[in-house]
Amino acid sequence: MQLSELGLDRWFADPAREQCGSDLSAARITAVDRGRYLVRDEHGERPAELTGRLQFAAESSIDLPCVGDWVCVRCLDARSHASIHGVLPRKSFLRRKVPGKDVDFQMIAANIDVAFVIQACHFDFNVRRLERYLVMVREGHVEPVLLLTKTDLVDAGELDALIGEIRAAGIESEIVTLSIVTGAGLDRVRELLIPGKTYCLLGSSGVGKTTLINRLSGDSGLETGDVSHTGEGRHTTTRRQLVVLEGGALLVDMPGMRELGMLGVSEGLDDTFADIGELAKSCRFTDCGHSSEPGCAVRAAIERHDLSEDRLRDYLKLRKESAFHDLSYVERRKKDREFGRLVQSATKHKAKRRGE
User: How far apart (Å, rounded) are the C-alpha atoms in residues 211 and 219?
Assistant: First the structure.
């Protein structure tokens, strides 16, 4: 397999030559599991580990490789394994706030062309969660396509109502309705898959991501769980992995996400709620909070029924959450830098005393 078939296009070619030089070669991260890596190049796939220098130089987790990254590697012991020396610049990325109370980024995948955001019609459908996914996807400069799965579990009227809810929320991305049971919609998904391009599946556990990959790749054998009585699959994907589909497209399978916290998503918010941003330009005050301020164009649009109250509430909630986490992240990074300078100063002082 050529590197171009793994997604190495002109955008990556020059950085790869410059950064890897003649001593190293380019490879792509195909799996990450608890700090362990798999990389793939034209000679095949092999385990790899980070060099100490790369780990030491990383200021945060976002500087470390994730699935989909292009990296500079040195193959060792007849290509049985490799060492990772550097990460090439990313064309796009997917990241979120780490689950729980900590305020930091968690890298999900990199260099994704299209993200299939999946929701099941029967048990998982939630427009508010869908908006969160779209904010994350657009923040990383990834094109979203929405997949509504398990359409065999609802009738035509219910399906139309679900699509209507999505459109009423101002979401204009392409929607593909899909049933793995009947095969409806699979041909459209296959049409969207272009050889050499990278795609990913985003969604909650049990919506059928791994089953879809198996159908698209000719039932390649990725493990799936039984389906429960509610129609919800029992999710079995435990790590992110990049697979090459039968037609030559590349697809990232990943565990479902229980939490999707907002951190560093100002651009994604602006893109996802572009209608509110456009209205806000006509507000009397530039710092309008769109609550009770006089001359608020956003409130006026709600009164005219051109904008729903729910959509504004969702936007304000996500903006507030992101602002809170952004501030906490900045404060944490400041403390980390101060601690780093303190350690560096103490080390230098200790070395100086030894030399006296």
Answer: 8
Q: Find the range with the poorest average confidence among 65-74, 104-113, 153-162.
A: 104-113
Quote the CATH superfamily of domain 93-253: P-loop containing nucleotide triphosphate hydrolases (3.40.50.300)
- Taking the C-alpha atoms of residue 21 and residue 19, their distance in angstroms, rounded to an integer, is 6
| Domain boundaries, given as residue ranges, for the chain | 3-87, 93-253, 266-336
Q: What is the pTM of this model?
A: 0.81
Cβ contacts of 183-191, under 8 Å, gap ≥ 24: 184/151, 184/152, 185/147, 185/151, 186/215, 186/216, 189/116, 189/147, 189/216, 190/216, 190/247
User: How confident is the model over 254-282, as pLDDT tens digits?
Assistant: 777 767 777 778 888 888 999 999 999 99
Determine the CATH number of domain 3-87: 2.40.50.140
How far apart are alpha carbons 334 and 341 in whole angstroms?
11
